[in-house]
Amino acid sequence: MKKGSLTIVGTGFLVAGQVTPEALASMRAADQLFFLVAEPATRLWLESQHPSAEPLDYVFWEGRHRQEAYEEIVERLLAAVRQRNDVCAAFYGHPGVFVYSSHEAVRRARGEGFTARMLPGVSAEDCLFADLEVDPAAYGCQSFEATDFLVRGRVFDPHSALILWQIGALGVTTFHLHDLWNAEGLNILVEVLCRVYPSTHSAIVYEATHYPVCNPLIQRTTIAGIPECQVNTHSTLWVPPVAKARLDTGMAAQLGLSI
Amino acid sequence: MAQGRLTVIGTGYNVAGQVTPEALSCMKQAERLFYLMSDPATSAWLKSLNAAAESLYDCYRVDEPGTAACERMVERILTAVHAGLEVCAAFYGHPAIFVPPGLESLRRARQEGFSARMLPAISFEDCLFADLGVDPAVHGRVMHEATDFLIRPRIFDPTAGLILLQVGAIGLVNFRKEDAPNREGVRLLARTLVKHYPESHRVALYRMSQLPIFEPSIAWVAVAELAEAPLSVCSTLYVPPLPRRPIDPEMLARLQKTVGSSLIAPLECELNEGTEGGNRNVKAERLGESPG
Description:
The structure holds 2 protein chains of 2 kinds.
Chain A: E1 5-10, H1 21-29, E2 32-36, H2 40-49, E3 54-55, H3 66-82, E4 86-91, H4 100-111, E5 115-118, H5 124-132, H6 136-139, E6 141-145, H7 146-151, E7 161-165, H8 183-193, E8 202-207, E9 217-222, E10 236-239, H9 249-254
Parallel strand pairs in A: 1-4, 1-5, 2-3, 2-4, 6-7
Antiparallel strand pairs in A: 7-10, 8-9, 8-10
Helix pairs in contact in A: 3-4
Chain B: E1 5-10, H1 21-29, E2 32-36, H2 40-49, E3 53-55, H3 66-82, E4 86-91, H4 100-111, E5 115-118, H5 124-132, H6 136-139, E6 141-145, H7 146-151, E7 161-165, H8 183-193, E8 202-207, E9 217-222, E10 236-239, H9 249-259, H10 268-289
């Protein structure tokens, strides 16, 4: 008798342009394929890869709390695994980044004795690094969800790069179909950033592209200029470091480094 | 625009298991394919894709700093672009992350008027997030190269996950064929970390699987015992976040005001998530510790 298993994969962006061979093989080999993707072309492509591909987007409706929707996804996947199916769930981007249901489904499946694993996918951040041509390891990098960054007063250092996610959805935790542009929220964000950065320091509002023929949206501005940019729920803020951090000569000497 | 074109791509890990279709077609179509790979299986696969594939590994010289090798790689890549060829440079992992010759050759090619671009790929962090069950969006994440983290101290948020690259190679600058991990460096790192975390805080030494049949290696130890943990020059350190700070009610009220009464959601799910976040690390830790 089959045991039932769960594999979580990511499809990256660009429809089928960034899916990895290992993810594709898992999707095709599954008894049941579930998916949550952001646009119709990827959906059509996934449906062509598996005869019984089933979308998970039915759990979202206008105004519903996201957490409630995520919980429904977890239970939908687990129900299929408990019926001893080899289940694959595909999410766009990286399946473990900004996806609560995927990690939780893996944990719950393992907790119930099933085999479960997650394969990495190309994330929105991977696209950002490639499109902006920046190395997050060069000066170090700190990333936060934008609302969380503000309401928990996150600590950060301007000598490393700063990434803020969902700057267009500040303060919003429900699901909405339309793009949000919380311009007033952006003014608060700018006020907080200006406590640390000069208002003229450069910043980039970035949005990865979902389609192979389109270019990513890269808006180069300053900290003060952020509210004037075209911002939506998928927009990400990249703030480059102000300068190299000061060298701790004592530590460098202890490590035998001459810099 | 001058003839000659450069595309810098990444192959991810697991030999051919994580390459994206767009990167694959670039490698196949290139008139010259340069590559820098960490294992012979991946090199063999690249040679089978493109007869004009050429390794950049010989740019390294024993006892020389990595910057000299980087300069040689950039020169070699640019020479082919100058010759008017369609050039692809392939690196393992993500080509922007910790691969100086990738970004540098891109910058220089463009400066000289050639068309140049980079394609994203699976990074070491992508593997870490999948293998350790960590969502960097939940608590935030801070990432540094380990030596850089030590010698240029920065303010960081310990309530975010901390990822330190190359913890086994702290203070090692010159290229050698077989470097032993630098335990003294890790000892200094542990001493720095206990200023920010309790000594018993559990941290993971992570090494991704390089070949499809192998499991990643994940070792959980208390931060104070870091120096005695199993370590390789390629190990990455993951330090789970400390418990969340409370929400600033004033900031919350200001933000709620901006979204308008119809959209007000009192960050309920975030609050729920907060309590769950407490279990979260414990659970992830248990998963990491369980064999297989």
